[in-house]
Amino acid sequence: MNSLKNIGVHVVHVGGNGNARAVLREVENLLQKLVTAGEESSIDLSGLPLSAEDYDLLEETLGEGEVVAEVHSLGPTRIHETGIPGVWWVTHYNDEDEVLAEFIEVAWCPEILLAPEDDVKDGLEALRARLFEMKQEGNHG
Amino acid sequence: MSAMELLLWARGPGLAIAAAVFLFGMTLRLIEIYSLGRKRDLAVPRSQTPGSGWRTIFSRSLPHADTWRRSTLTIVAGFVFHIGLFVVLLFLLPHIELIRALTGLSWPALPTPLVDLATVITLIALVVILVSRLLDPVKRFLSGFGDYLAWTVTFLPLLTGYMAYHHLLLDYTLLLALHILSAELLLVVFPFTKLTHTFTLFIARWYNGDIAARKGVAS
Amino acid sequence: MADETLLEILQRRGVSRRGFLKFCAATTSLLALPPSMAAAVAESLGRVRRPAVIWLSFQECTGCTESLTRAHSPSIESLIFDAISLDYHHTLQAASGHAAEEAREHSMKADWGNYLLIVDGSIPLKDGGVYSTIAGISNLQMLQEAAAGAAAIVAIGTCAAYGGLPHAQPNPTGAVAVSDIVKDKPIINVPGCPPVPAVMVGVLAHYLTFGSLPDLDELGRPRAFYGESIHDRCYRRPFYDQGKFAKTFDDAGARDGWCLFELGCKGPTTHNACATTKWNGGTSWPVQSGHGCIGCSEPDFWDAGGFYKALSTPVNSVSGAATAAVAAGAAAGIAIGLANRQRKARARGEHQTITIEDLEK
How big is the A-C interface in CB pairs under 8 Å? Predict the structure, then answer.
């Protein structure tokens, strides 16, 4: 089977196509808006033609920050703060660990990490109910 | 009719009709010319120089020094236009594919950006030729409907081809359909206008060279 | 349960509000909308009542259903399809026979005027439509009945959208598209042979999310997915522009990834999402695999000349017409030539002189 090994593999490097730089400029733009007007926004990475080289360049340039978070709902969502504070990399996965969507969020805190207001109100009721139960048990104990 | 339907018609029945009219017309014209025959020249030829007719076909491509001086713009623009037209027609790959589908012949293509440049130059040459025809009082006086028709049917395929390649103004499918239809228009009017010079020019030059040789002025 | 909103359905299945947010973000991305529209998507999903969906399969190969079930956002897809009430689908449903047909009729009556009708396959018209029937009912009749009570119709696949393969010459069954029969209902065409799975899911998601039709082009296709041609998004475009073409499959040029124009690629005249969305979850697509685009989302692509003949070549051979033309020209030329000679001889005999008009001719 030597002949199979002798077939040369011609690797063509497509290289980045400048889109990584365009995304970074957009991030700069959005970060400026956050600083001046407090406006939060996101960039949808699945909608962009980014080659593997572009992705790597994007990740390298943004770097890694101090925060890593994971949300468990409809599968995991993995978030990490990039080396640029206020710029978060959010990847949504399904239960089979396949990527559903990927965003770069420019915000004080990624939206999905905030506790939803209705959930908090429901939570207050739930906590009050639990405290009441504890009190009942204390009375009967 | 959608753009796609128009394109499929142009590549289908449209081409068949255009090719049929073109071949019918040119065959008719050429047979008409040859069947007229020549009056037999009973005089003795001044010089025995065979092949003068054939040589004239090529030598007539180079104008006289006087002619150069008098009609420089017409000659230069004319050469640029004709050479540019042949480059575009014969050395763009999609055109070579068409010729291969119709006749089985093919040859290497030129890089498309080169042909694109040739197209621009050809279009400019055509505009220069038209403007020169309109501004010169003699040429304008001599020009008729046939002259302007021939110019237009030659200009349109070049323009629409350029627009299609560069995706200018309209949807590509529609532009391609218009390009093919404009070429078919050219084919249909071809045998009935002065565009027949494409073939008759060789007959005319041969005849003139042969007659000139008989009269002692061989090529 | 047919009156619940999507949000209520998700909550009933134990999906938290964060989960709903994630679902909306992913759906917004799927619909090729900017992230800023996620709030609008969330608001709409919280409001829109889930419709009943009837899927009718006519003269088709089932490729569209196969493609759809390979859609690669399983959670989104399963949620969307749990969200809709898919009341009738030949291949996917468990019921069969009379029970299935009764269920269809019941569903139509219960949701008359509101259900979404999805059609794949063309409709044969020849000989009273006998060439494709379900339970003895011709496709034509079934379509007309179902369309009468539909809120909107989605024609999935090139067969339903434009007639597809059965419509190709000589069209022995008299196959036509949905839009050739139904004239009074909004129709979304989702062509492709088969359509890209993500596109099918995206179109259905749009309708379910917003309850309205997406922006359509002049052939009835959603512009979000069919607005660009393959050529305009093809990664091999630089090679086309430079004039570097592969001559045969697997030659040096082909291996270097050169343009496939000479090998019949119909990319320039084809509108679809293959070049950006790709197939098999973004793995690859025909051109990337080295095969030219066959133009499967355009009408009459089967009759557009061969798949391996360049776009600039004729659809049919013209040699027949050409030979006939030359023969006719020759005959006419000889006849006219003889007539000319006769006229010349007569003119000489009558000693006619040549005038300026003769020379001008």
Answer: 71
Q: Where are the domains of chain A?
A: 1-109, 116-141
Rounded CA-CA distance A31/A84 in Å is 10
- Cα torsion C271, C240, B175, B24 to 10°: value is -120
What are C132-135's contacts with CB under 8 Å, separation 24+? C132/C58, C132/C59, C132/C173, C134/C90, C134/C101, C135/C97, C135/C98, C135/C101
What CATH topology corresponds to C230-303?
Cytochrome-c3 Hydrogenase; Chain A, domain 2 (4.10.480)
Judging contacts by C-beta atoms under 8 Å, the chain C residues touching residue A101 are 25-26, 29-30
CB contact under 8 A, C73 and A100: yes
Which tens digits make up the pLDDT trace of A12-30? 555 555 678 889 999 999 9
Q: Token pair of B176, please? A: 């391609």
Tell me if chain C has a CB within 8 Å of the CB of A10. yes
Q: What is the pLDDT of residues B6-38, one digit of tens each?
A: 999 999 999 999 999 999 999 999 998 888 878
> How far apart (Å, rounded) are the C-alpha atoms in residues C158 and C188?
12
Compute the distance between CA of residue C204 and CA of residue C153 in angstroms, rounded to an integer: 11
% residues pLDDT > 90 (chain A): 54
Residues 157-176 on B with a CB inside 8 Å of C are 167, 172-173, 176
Does C18 sit within 8 Å of A44, measured CB to CB? no
Tell me yes or no: is domain A1-109 CATH 3.30.1370.140: yes
**Beta-carbon separation of A100 and C72 below 8 A:** no
Contacts with B21 from chain C: Cβ below 8 Å: 325
The pLDDT score that the predictor gives to residue C1 is 42
Where do the domains of chain C lie? 50-225, 230-303, 319-360
CATH (residue range C50-225): 3.40.50.700
B21: tokens are 């009219």
**Binning pLDDT at 50, 70 and 90, where does residue C258 land?**
very high
Q: Are strands C115-120 and C52-57 parallel, antiparallel or unpaired?
A: parallel
Q: Pull the structure tokens for residue A32.
A: 């400026």
Average pLDDT over residues C267-272: 96
Write out chain B residues lying below 8 Å of C321, CB-based: 16-17, 19-20
Residues 6+ apart with CB under 8 A from C211: C44, C48
ipTM above 0.90, yes or no: no
Tokens describing residue C247: 């001559």
Decide if B20 touches C, using CB distance below 8 A: yes
As given in the structure block, the two tokens for residue B119 are: 């197209």
- Work out the burial of residue C127: count CB atoms within 10 Å of its CB; fewer than 13 is exposed, 13-18 middle, 19 or more buried: exposed
Which residue of A41, A46, A74, A95 to mutate against C (max C Cβ within 10 Å)?
A: A74
Report yes or no: B146 at the C interface, CB cutoff 8 Å. Answer: no
